[in-house]
Design a protein that fits this description.
50% of the residues lie in helices and 17% in strands. It is an alpha+beta fold. It folds into three domains: 3-52, no CATH class; 60-161, 2-Layer Sandwich (Alpha-Beta Plaits); 166-253, no CATH class. Helix 3 (78-88) packs across helix 4 (116-130) and helix 8 (192-203) crosses helix 11. The chain is globular, with a radius of gyration of 21 Å. InterPro entries: Homeodomain-like_sf (IPR009057), PucR_C-HTH_dom (IPR025736), PucR_C-HTH_sf (IPR042070). It comes from Pseudolactococcus piscium. This is Regulator. Residues 201-241 form the PucR C-terminal helix-turn-helix domain.
């Protein structure tokens, strides 16, 4: 599809909508785009939704009453992963494939459900054993009646690479008017070294040994980098400060 030609006729915007339920979203050449439904006629909305950018509909209303969790998975090896999921997680009732590399597993709440940490560890082991790459999003448990609405929100979080907590923090920061916060954010925008340091520490749960290994540097070098950052920014690279800094980078990136 030629995006340039589409942009001449319709209000196409690049990126992810802050209100996915009020937008037509689609992907082209690996890039995300959207059009606000308020900018389109009913006929145009129908055309884009049911013909051009149609996706397989998740039929949550067909589930029996109960409490469910949605596990979104994205991988070029999705079919191979899906084959093993039900064997590993007996609480899954179905795996719905939405695209060649994306689908949603639906898990019903029971006493046999794994804790989130156990689920993450098991999925990481599965990917490693199969020798495949992939990403996933573990949703929260919701009543069947609200699954459709919650899916749209969790899908948006997954597309942005945000966890539930990160999405809330990001939304909250956007509403805050703080001069010191604005200064820090602007400085981070041009400080690629600081951005890498924040991301690696956050992704490795502040474990300095793992972070140093991920950055291919000695642990003492990492310690010096952290001290330098704290002198420059007045914030530590641990706890709530690290969460705040990582959220600021996400806002700058997305």
């Amino acid at each position: 599809m030629k995006i340039a030609a589409l942009e001449k006729i319709f209000p196409v915007k690049k990126g992810l909508s802050d209100q996915p339920e009020s937008a037509i979203t689609f992907t082209n050449d690996g890039e995300q785009y959207y059009m606000n439904k308020s900018d389109l006629t009913p006929r145009e909305i129908s055309l884009f939704s049911t013909v051009l950018f149609a996706t397989k509909e998740m039929k949550f209303d067909q589930l029996s009453p109960g409490v469910y969790r949605l596990i979104q998975l994205k991988s070029d090896s999705f079919d191979e992963i899906a084959e093993h999921l039900s064997l590993i997680f007996p609480t899954l009732i179905t795996v719905e494939k939405q695209a060649s590399d994306y689908g949603v597993a639906i898990e019903k709440l029971s006493s046999d459900c794994l804790y989130e940490s156990e689920m993450k560890q098991t999925l990481a082991t599965l990917f490693q054993d199969l020798g495949v790459d992939g990403t996933y999003y573990l949703g929260m448990f919701y009543d069947q009646a609200v699954l459709a609405d919650r899916y749209q929100l969790e899908k948006s979080n997954f597309e942005q690479g945000l966890t539930f907590s990160e999405a809330l923090i990001k939304a909250g920061i956007k509403q805050v008017s703080s001069h010191p916060l604005s200064i820090i954010k602007q400085r981070l925008l041009t400080d690629s070294e600081a951005q890498e340091l924040i991301k690696k520490l956050y992704q490795n749960d502040s474990n300095q040994l793992k972070t140093a290994k991920a950055m291919f540097i000695h642990r003492n070098t990492l310690t010096q980098k952290m001290k330098k950052f704290e002198r420059q920014y007045g914030l530590t690279l641990t706890g709530s400060d690290l969460v705040l800094l990582y959220s600021l980078i996400n806002i700058a990136d997305k």
